[in-house]
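Thread: "does anyone have the structure for this chain?"

Original post by V.I.:
We have the sequence but no experimental structure in hand. Need at least a predicted one for the grant figures.
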Amino acid sequence: MLYFAYGMNTDPNQMDHFKAEPLGRAKLLSHTFHFSVHADVRPKYDSAVDGVLWEIDDETLVDLDCREGYPTYYTRHLQPVEFNGEIVEAWCYTMCRDWHTPSPPSKGYLSMLFNGYQKFDVPTRQIDEALAEFV
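Reply from O.Q.:
Generated one for you, tokens below.
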């Protein structure tokens, strides 16, 4: 199955603990990127979020659920993702409504995002724009 990451799980060092194969850069359609301490995406027509697509198994999905605090901190849904010019369905975590308070991330958390984005040639524009909300 497929999993779309846009936060710390774009960093291959963070995904080393899982049975996950990186497929490369992808786009989550009809969403926008934000920070509420951690990375989050919210629905927004005519917008997209850059990230990394991973191939995972059932066991890894359960492990990711634990990492993401599913279902109380993040929830997950199958979402349309653009990958190599095609639309595929991938699991994607979105923050539960109770945690949507805009807050900047820590430097350590940002470091993981920048590492993953750099590794997979994901543009950092959405991170920069989200951080600008806190200046």
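V.I.: this helps a lot. Strands lie at 2-5, 20-36, 38-56, 74-83, 86-95.
O.Q.: and The chain has a mean pLDDT of 97.
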